Amino acid sequence: MAQNVRVVAPRLPTPAVRESRRTTGLPDELVSEQIQRLALFAAIAAGLWAVGLIIDVVLVPLTWGVEMSWRAVALDLGGIGSAAWMYWLARYCRQPGRTKADISLIYLVLNAIAIAILNTWIVPPLAGPSLFVSWAAPAILIFAMIAPVSPQRILIASLVAASMDPLAMLVAYLLGTPVVSVPQAILRSIPNYTCAVVAMLPSRVLYRLGRRLREAQELGSYQLVELLGHGGMGEVWRARHQLLARQAAIKLVRPEVLGARDEAEARVLLRRFEREAQATAALSSPHTIQLFDFGMTGEGTFYYVMELLAGRDLETLVREFGPVPADRSVFLLRQVCHSLADAHARGMVHRDIKPANVYVCRMGLEYDFVKVLDFGLVKVRDRAATADTLLTVDHTTTGTPAYMAPEIILGEADVDSRADVYALGCVAYYLLTGSLVFEAETPMKMLLQHAHAKPVPPSQRTELPIPRELDELVLACLEKDPNDRPQSAEDLFRLAVGCPCNGWNQASARSWWKTHLPELTGPLVVPEDTQHAGRVVVTV
Fold first, then answer.
1. Active site residue ranges
2. CATH no. for residue 483?
3. Which of 337, 389, 390, 469 is buried most deeply by CB count within 10 Å?
4. Concatenated DSSP letters for 65-122?
């Protein structure tokens, strides 16, 4: 279970919530998997009944010269029909998984009735004491290993199924049909009832695993639903709030990635993590990703709870649809500047601006709405700097050399908002051309080019028209000396507003989305029992 360190968004840990965690049974995804196994169980049962039909129709008359028994054929057909019904129920019926699981108990009893009729009226009873074991016994055990129902229900259904053989013998005796003696009937029934009692064990194991899975998936007031992506920094999951109907994205960050080498360093890191999460939550720009909550699990894994977005990050956008026209690039660039200007005004520097951390989404009626991601993920540079280090040197060098400012590469102490301006220039360059500012065989060679090489103007690396003012704006952001760049995101915003690229608006954005991402132009409600629609925020 997650142990919350700090509550950024108010939560209501009521007793009713804690009680629901104990009584909700198996997680939905585990129920769904077990229902699919029930479908396989029904398919195998149908195959066995089909083999019996072939034996009764073909082999028995040919081998022993015995006339075909229509009662046996009818029983075989009934077994095939009930198995087909169970298979359809498990695979194609739209009933909830738990409802299907409860109905499957009826199928177990129906199978036991068919087996009892087969043992009593179709196959002559064996004479003398016998180690005969009814097919009902293994059917009960196998079913208990698969069915996602409570141990109590499994026990009741198994006892009913186990009673079908002795009940059939009792009915046959009352009708005057020859049956085995009472002691032999008892011996034949012992395996059935033994398996019925033992059937509770696999059901208990399944429920114990289900509880552990549910506990592992619960972080504070959120429950993990679906893994969206994973990478060097950890994992991103789609989650839902246990009290509200709100969907969210949760990023799990492994502590070793953040640089904690021992318990003392982990405590220092946790305090910094808490302060930076609070600072991120305080950002008010609508173009900054909303942070709902954060905390740390019992295993020491940090987690962020963020708003769930529907759209594309800029890296994916360019990779799928090619370079972005100048007017749309400026339209997006202004929104990124709005977010960074808010952060810079509060003394925060993002330090990891790159296309993968800029998300273009649909937000209500607005399209091409930008959200800047990943404020506040840090790593301790060394033991001496654990108190105030903001920069993730190892992560940044290995993860984003294509967007790193020269002063960061050269290890200069005074790294400020102008480093974000440089990175944003690299992002604009990538948007306009579909290419990195500098191409190199290794990250180190790329870093050296960022530190010393002069960039080629973006207008010379694309066939799309780029106005001179926008060309000069991008090159100004890419100046090696921070003093020669726009001094903040606010300054860059003013320059972007002055660019003669105002042809992109909400009408053109909506038209583009309807053409290229039509699945994201309709309702964005994510059904509880289906996969998420479109793309969501996945940055790790």
1. 352
2. 1.10.510.10
3. 337
4. -PPPPHHHHHHHHHHHHHHHHHHHHHHT--S-HHHHHHHHHHHHHHHHHHHHHIIIII
